[in-house]
Amino acid sequence: MKLGMVGLGRMGGNMTARLLRHGHEVVAFDPSPEAVDRTVQAGAAGASSLQDLVSRLEAPRVVWLMVPAGEITETTVRELGGLLSSGDVVVDGGNSFYKDSMRRAGQLEAAGIRFVDCGTSGGIWGLANGYCLMVGGDPGAVKLVEPAFLALAPDGGYAHVGPYGAGHFVKMVHNGIEYGLLAAYGEGFEILERSGFDLDLLRIASIWRYGSVVRSWLLDLLNEALGKDPRLERIKGYVEDSGEGRWTVQAAIDENVPAPVTAVALFNRFSSRQEESFSAKVIAALRNEFGGHAVKTEEGEG
Q: Is this prediction's pTM over 0.70?
């Protein structure tokens, strides 16, 4: 299929490359001309603006957004609403708040433009391994974009989970669970690190990957991180949050669901910004390994 990709950063650039590898045509746009040039070299058609991108697509057009949640997504969707036609589809693959996605879907629907919210997980490893895609939207719109979903996801890694808003809601909860998993690994390895046994953390992380009930991809990544820096001495235990954990805790409150693990994991991230801890170092290292998220090092940004 042919589609437009808006946003060619860490995720959008790799997703464009994966789509091209699977034989799809991509018209790519980013405010950075250098980012556009990189995708053109990989086989995409470059666009100089959103208007130029839309003009290069045939109806029904599909425009996929991989831009930061918040105001950038808001203004991009608004501008596309004035450029697209009835029957066209806007896919938001970023980490937007699900209620914002529901509102945007309603606004576009008034002009006959269909909206699909696609929760996307996979980080910097998605190009090679594929992306887990949690999709919300009208069945007809989802079916139109499905060839792209199937190209981006590994086998079994894509599902239409419900109406618009549902995709970003499921991804929000997914990230809330991630908060708890990262916190558990962080706390466990801090207990090991503080013990009087002078333990080889790398070796422990390595053996836990085989036969242990706590084995996981995150543990594989921790093994990689410890292999580079056995005591994580170059990483500051400063952990950001991008919003999904807060939204998950708020949803739990709204739905009267006890979610103490997610809440504590979120608050621990706040604590990481006030004092150093090995637990926070582990979480920061893992986020860098699976998502390419920047880490703070003793020398500055890493």
A: yes
